[in-house]
Specification:
Layout (H helix, E strand, L loop, with lengths): L1 H31 L6 H18 L2 H28 L10 H20 L4 E2 L9 E4 L2 E4 H23 L1 H18 L4 H22 L5 E2 L3 H16 L4 H21 L7 H12 L29 H15 L1 H4 L2 H26 L8 H18 L3 H23 L4 H21 L1 H4 L5 E2 L10 H23 L2 H11 L1 H6 L4 H27 L1 E2 L6 H14 L6 H16 L5 H15 L3 H13 L9 H6 L1
Antiparallel strand pairs: 1-4, 2-3, 5-6
Length: 626
Amino acid sequence: MEFFVAQILTGLANASSLFLVACGLSLIFGVTRIVNFAHGSLYMLGAYIGLTLMEALPGHFGFWGSILLAGIAVGLIGVVIEMLVLRPVYRAPELFQLVATFGVILVIQDLALLIWGPEDQLGPRAPGLRGVFRIMGEPIPKYDIVLLVITPIIALALWWAMTRTRLGVLVRAATQDREMVGALGVNQAWLFTGVFALGSALAGLGGALQLPKGGADLLMDFTILTPVFVVVVIGGMGSLPGAYLAAIIISVLNVFGVTYIPQSTLVLMFIVMIVVLMIRPYGLFGREEVAGEHGQVGEPEEPIKPASARVRAFVAAGLILLALLPLFGSNFALVLTTDILIFCLFAASLHFLLGLGGMVSFGHAAYYGGGAYVAALLVTWTETPMELAFLLAPLGAGLIAIVVGWVCLRLTGVYFAMLTLAFAQLLWSLVWQWQEVTGGDDGLVNIWPADWLNDNTIYFYFALILSVGGILTLRHVAHSPFGYALRAARDSKRQAEATGIDTRRVQLLAFTFAGFMGGLAGALFVFSKGSVFPNELEIVRSFDALIVVFLGGVKTLAGGVVGAGFFKGVEDLLTRFEYWRLVMGLLIIFVVVVAPEGIVGSLRRAWRRFGPGDSHAESPAEERRT
């Protein structure tokens, strides 16, 4: 019994920082509808700034003052980020702010590396709180007891601020209907800035408070990001009581998981999230989402149409140049272009799901990495010929997509996205821990193509044909009756069902087809590299695809391909420099601010305005405004 109580108290203490960061993210999402990927970076800044201040300010006052000052400093940094990066893209297409926050992550990562160096730094002991208390005979660190007192006080202070102050009333009103708040004369811009500053300050406060329990390192932003999103989703997006309760549940279960089921620690919180969302689709205290409420949706989407003769000629010329690459390009250029082609197919498969289907998946790497592992496992354990393994890989990925889609399509919006992430993490954990079969962290190697493909030039043409063919197939399906039914289900599910369309069946087929094409890209990848490792299933790989889709233009058919080509090409160029993330982040932010419709959408608008002939004609959206 004593050990059981001690475990609960440890879990409650661990929930403190998690609650503060999750609370800030929940506030930001509730008002601005921004899914802030950079929130973990603000947590990391709070830790580093707090550590720096603690080294300069001695004693009790210096320690606790440093924690408070770190929160204030990160809040001011949040003001700068909101005003310079996010405010210009509030009216961009839905969820486009994801790209901007991704750019902020890259910038902060390299700035932290530049200022504090690459070494992990240990946090100082809290003055006067060294040692332990004995509770029922079990040792509990004194600092943990202090956190057990501080966290409820902060939670109560936030509750009072949200329920008893004018700012709290405005925040709660904006959470329910921000357009009405603006119509009543409230300056939404400054409200958004204030809320973003408060959320950022809470993240910084959480980072500084955990210093005596951990320290500061350059990976802590991604380490905290996933648990924070899980907590916010379980509690209900925008709900502070939900975030508090979910942080306690996750932290306490994690402590018991480490003790009794160590193998479950990688996925326990995702299992909890799946169970909660299956019972309560909008979290413990969440509310049903309204389509299009995640940020401004931008201008109405124009009807897609087949490419013009000019565009087809331009694409044909580009493909001819690609086909001639072996004649004038180096071996390195062939390998790089092969990688870009494969990534373009992967991004195009996600774009089909996101752009045409309106289904935002945070776990699309499950099908890319899943297809790669299906092929690798067949070759490794059954000595399946490369050709057969290559054919079975996308089928295996498609089967995974059927199962995941069947469960996830009960939900919408961010809840749908997070549930896809949960299943992707379950698959990643299985691959990581089943070492005797999958190789674990060592991966699977010596997965080379057949002899007739065992040449870079020949494999380049193989990848070119299949990648371009897959992208054209996705485009053809978009113009088919199935593509129109999918867009109908996306735009108005009720009206689509009234016309006889089985929207759930259409969405499940689209989800499966996108998974199949992602698996095809994974099969091309594994035989190109000759190996596969669990990182191909990680969250970062899914986010890479998600970012390039928005970067290229989610409301254009070519957006995923163009975004992937641009991102991979620039990444290869910049990674030769030490602080390449800083430059890449600034470049992404610049593109987001200057081209809020994505690269393809902005180029199309520029062509209409400045191009020859009748391209000066106004778009349907412009005609409606006039």
